[in-house]
Each structure stands twice: as C-alpha cells, then as structure tokens.
Amino acid sequence: MKLKKVMALTLAAVLSLSALAGCGKDDRPASGENNNKEQTEENQKEESNQKAGGEEGGMADSVTFPLEETMTFTAVAGMNGDYTMTDNIAMQKALADTNVQIDFTNVLHSELAEKLSTMINGNNYPDIFFKNNFDADKYGKQGIVIPLEDLIKKYAPNLTALLDERGGWQYITASDGHIYSLPQIDMPSVSRPAYWINKRWMDNLGLKEPASFDELYEVLKAFKEKDANGNGDPDDEIPLFCNSWLNPFFLLQYADFPNTGKDGIIDGELRYVPATEEYKEFLAYATKLYQEGLMYKNSFTTQHDEQAPIGQSGDVLGSFFDAGAFLTVGRDHDEDYIALTPWDDCLDLSPGIQGGTLAISDKCEHPEVVVAWADQFYTEEGGKLAWMGVEGETYQYNDQGEWEWLLDKGHGEDITTVRASSAIQGGGQSHPSVQPRAWMESMSANVDPDEVYLNQQRLKLIEHGQVPWPKLTYTDDQQKEMSTIGADINPYVDEYMAFVVTGELNLEDSWDEYIGKLNEMGLERLEAIYKEAYDAAMNR
Fold first, then answer.
1. pTM over 0.85
2. Cα-based distances in Å from 534 to 25, 26, 529
3. More confident residue, 54 or 324
4. CA contacts within 13 A on the Cβ side of 153
C-alpha cells in the first residue's frame, strides 16, 4: 500500500497583528484549599476552554509587536545543559524585539519532573511551561493547561499555515480533541537508525549498491569471502554488525510494506508484524545471514555501547545500524559508508511534528500574547533564531552563501557550547519552532563536515520515504491495555527472534507454538485496538 509522501516544507509570510494591554496575575489558593472550592473540575475545564476561545476570556482582537507596554509572564524552562534561558542571547532578542518579558525559573532536565510535580501539586505553577517535555495532554485534561487550537488559528498565522500545509494538526491533538501545547516542526526525518553499508568495500569488489534483500545477501556474502578491506586477511570482516538493541529487526525498514518494525500495514490493515507470514519470511532470511556467518556472531548479546569500540578498532565493519555512521566508525571513516537507499519508497519517516514544547497554564491572563509571541519562531528567520542563534554573534554566512558557527564572540569556544549557551535549541531538547531549511541545506562543511555529510545522507533517505500512516489516537483505557499486553509480547518476540536466528529453535517447528503464545498474551486484542485506531484515522 502506497501512502502519500509528506509534502516539502514551505514557510508562511508573517502577518501583522494589533495592540493590547498588560497582563496581570491571579492569586490562587493552595491545592488543599482548592479541593474545598464549590467549582468542580468540569467547571474549571469549561472556564479554561472559554479563556482559550476568544472574547469570553477578555482577549484582544489582535496583537502587534513590539507591544506598546511591556508585558511580563512567568515560565519554568528546561535548561540547555548548564545554560539557562534567562542568559540566552537568542531568547533575549526574541523578547526585546517584542517588548515581552518572561521571568524564567530555569531547571536542569534531570530535575524537571520532580520540580514540575512539586509546582503543580502546590498550585504554584507559572504562566508558561517551556521546553521541558511537559505532558501537556495529561494536564490539559485536568484543566491546568488550556486548549490552544482556537488561539493558534487566531493569533499564530505562521504556525497555522505550517500545520495546514503539513497536515500537522493531527500530530498535536489530544484524544479529547484539544491541542494543549505548541509543536516543534522539523523536516520529515527517518524514524529509525539508518542502515549504513561500506561503499569503499563495494568499490573494492566492483559491487553495486544492493536494491533488494537478495542483492544485499550477495553483497554481504562477498564482504565475507573476498577480503573486502584488502588487508590480506579474508576472515576479519564483519559483513553485518548488530547488537542487542540494534538487532536484525532494523532491516525490516527495507521491507516492501510500510512499517515501524513491529507495526505495519499489510493488505490495508495495521498489523502486529511479528505475527505475520511476512515476518516469518524475514526471520528465515535473518537466520540465513547468521548461519552463513554474514551476521556478527554475538549480535544478540553485545551491548550497544560496545558497537563504537568495535567499529573503531580497525577496518572491520561492512554494515551496521546507527543514527550516523561517525557514531560507530569515527569521524575519520564515516564517509566510507552510505545510508542504503530504500528499495520500495516504504522507509518509515517521522512527520517531524511533536508537541509538548510550550504549554500555557490557566493562570495566564493573556495567553493570546504568548501564542502570538511564539509564532515568530515558525518562520525561516524565526527558525534560524531558535536553532542557530543571532547572526553575527553565534553564526555567519560565508562568501559561498553557507552558514557557519562563530567561535570567537565569547559565547563558547566549541560548537556544543555555542549552541547550548546561545541558541534556544541548545543541542536537541524540543522547543517551539520550525527547523529552518538553512539547517539542512546550507550548513558549511567548515561547521562540521561529518554533520553536513550526515545531512546529505538523511535527505537521500527522506526522498525515498513516507509517513506510514496518519496519527493513531488511543483512549486512555486502550493505552493501558496496549502497555500491559506489550510488556509481555515484545520481550517474547525479541527472545524468539534470537533463538530462531542463532539456531536454538527451528523456525518451521516452532512457529505455530510461537503464534499460540502470542495469542495467549493478548495478540488478538492488541490487533483489534490497532484496527479501531487505524480505521478511525483513515476515516478522519
């Protein structure tokens, strides 16, 4: 089944908005007193819904920046390592340009969960939850954070345009139909570690890049038998390296049906892949690789942190799975490897849209200003500010029109420090923004040649991939059921794969018993939940 590919991301023009007055704070009782209030939780939620809905909450018709008078909000924010949002020059510019002030409580990510829990339980939480992986859907259903869908449509034209174009509303909508947080919008990305294969070895042996499982088998066989690294020792090559986490399952990303490994669309239905005939055929293939010595003999017992030491011990790896080749073989050898081009355009892509980056509490009297302020980050220039910092301070463009980090402006002597101290992105944590096209398309090799090479390989994979299905929405009860069933089924599936591939179990002799155990563990109920969610998503 072929699904429509994700459209390329383009950016909406910034729209003008008009002025409004200052923001106050309310004094709420502590949680113990709050339990004695006559207003029920449902009434509180309705009050929050009205606040998010427009005029009923006392909101202005429009917002224009810079504000005529400074407006101040409070926020709790996850830190970029040891660096705060308060001292972040990109954040300072985003605030100064709009005449908005945010008083940040900055918390180490390792301490965020406890801090947020204490704040919420003590009813002393702020206006804004920023960059802290906040479970906005959970607290939205409790009325602690407010619905944002109407605010986005009215006060965030840039974000609205992006969500419309990318079909992104579904990915940030909670099961109750509301949106409780703003998203980070990246380019579509590969959702699983890529499969890297040694192009130099293929060139040494006069081999073409494989375009099917059968051709991959022939390439791996040649790696083993023909001294692919050319050192005179025909027995030191490892054609396919796996470990206990990055196991043969990851080869399924090259199957001819859309899948995420254990979930896949087969004959128009969302199935649990390890219970299908297609998976049985795949197990037979993986077993063949292992039994013929084409797969690393300790693939199911080697820990993930042992992969890089083995990969950097010498010219020994023919192929492996990782987010980037340099993570396994080091920066001096990563360009020997290419990400294997997908064969059927079925490579599973993430839509690149994730919520939870900014939520607004029911204490905020002017949430429309917060939403309008954050909308600046959903343009190309705003994305650059969030991801790259301030031009001339943290990055610059060279004569070739490529951008590179600046390490001589007092914001850090290495790229990691500059990003953490002075860009809102700060090295990876989710934040409200759109990933600028410049990040992937015009980064100078002077910045980090390995990252530029990785970006090129990622773009190749994206070109041949697809988002396999719309967002699947499950009820709280369904999620609990899936979690309970998965806790039994998934480890058993992994164990069975290891036993079959290594020869401890015969596939044909054990398959029926394996399926029977899956059914005992709740497979039929799991697939029924899948079907309900998939059918609902396809009919939306």
1. no
2. 43, 43, 8
3. 324
4. 10
CB count within 10 Å of CB 516 equals 11
pLDDT score for 56: 40
3-class DSSP assignment, residue 194:
strand
For 70-114, give the DSSP string. -EEEEEEEE-BTTB-STT-HHHHHHHHTTTEEEEEEEE-HHHHHH
Residue type, 100: V
- C-alpha 86/C-alpha 92 separation (Å) is 7
Query: How many CB atoms within 10 Å of residue 499?
Result: 16
Beta-carbon contacts of residue 448 (< 8 Å; ≥ 6 apart): 415
Q: Give, as one character, the DSSP assignment of residue 238.
A: B
Q: How far apart are the C-alpha atoms of 297 and 282, rounded to whole Å?
A: 18
Q: Looking at the predicted structure, is the pLDDT value of residue 15 above 80?
A: no
Residue 416 parent element (H or E): helix 415-422
- Predicted local distance difference test score (pLDDT) of residue 189: 86
Residue 208 has what DSSP assignment?
A: P
What confidence tens digit (pLDDT) does each residue in 445-465 have? Answer: 887 788 889 989 999 999 999
How many of the other CB atoms lie within 10 Å of CB of 1? 13
Separation between Cα atoms, residue 287 and residue 413, nearest integer Å: 49
Average pLDDT over every residue of 220-233: 96
301-319, pLDDT tens digit by residue? 999 999 999 999 999 999 9
How far apart CA 21 and CA 62 sit, in angstroms, is 11
Whole-number average pLDDT of the chain: 88
For residue 428, the model assigns a pLDDT of: 62
Strand pairing class (403-405; 395-397) = antiparallel
**Angle ∠(217,219,223) on CA atoms, nearest 5:** 115
Question: How many DSSP H helices and E strands does the chain contain?
Answer: 20, 16
Higher confidence at residue 22 or residue 321?
321
Q: How far apart are CA 525 and CA 23, in angstroms?
A: 50
Helix or strand holding residue 190 (H, E): strand 189-190
Peptide bond preceding 491 in cis form (omega within 30 of 0): no
Confirm if 369 and 72 have CB atoms less than 8 A apart: no
Using 50, 70 and 90 to split pLDDT, how confident is the model at 427?
low
Lowest mean pLDDT, pick from 25-34, 74-83, 202-211, 215-224:
25-34
- Other C-beta atoms lying within 10 Å of the C-beta of residue 83: 20
In contact, 298 and 291? CB cutoff 8 Å = no
What is the signed CA dihedral for 221, 463, 449, 204, rounded to 10 degrees?
Answer: 20
